[in-house]
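Technical annex B. To support the medicinal chemistry partners, we prepared a structural model of the target in complex with 1,3-dihydroxyacetonephosphate, based solely on the information shown next.
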Amino acid sequence: MNIALIAHDDKKDDLVRFVTAYLDIFKDHTLFATGTTGKRIMEATQLSVQRFQSGPLGGDQEIGALIAKKEMDMVIFFRDPLTAQPHEPDVTALVRLCDVYSIPLATNMGTAEVLIRGMKYGLMEWLEGNPGENNES
Ligand SMILES: O=C(CO)COP(=O)(O)O
């Protein structure tokens, strides 16, 4: 599966810890990330991550473009609900595209745990190879 990993600054440590805890799962998937998040993950793990621009410089939109092209299967985006982001419209657009294409999206650790455990037990099979399939028009 193609998985996007994104975290706002105050949540980056949490995401690095999360990815490290589930390394045995993430290593079998193709990972994408916004610039700084991807750098942090690669520094902390042996994982290869395709990095885009930093979020404020367009990284969220680049990941959104992959969703629109049906090339993304899951988004794990640890948002910081307590800090205003200069690129909030980009964040909203990314979340919206996940809804448009029915892409599983975790915006916090609790939901991410459920998604990753779901993957482990094969609950995401309906998605494989068919991102956004149910929104074909
Ligand atoms: O701002 C972000 C998401 O909106 C994340 O971007 P970075 O990973 O480059 O910090």
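Notes passed to the chemistry partners:
The chain has one domain: 2-131.
The longest helix spans residues 88-100.
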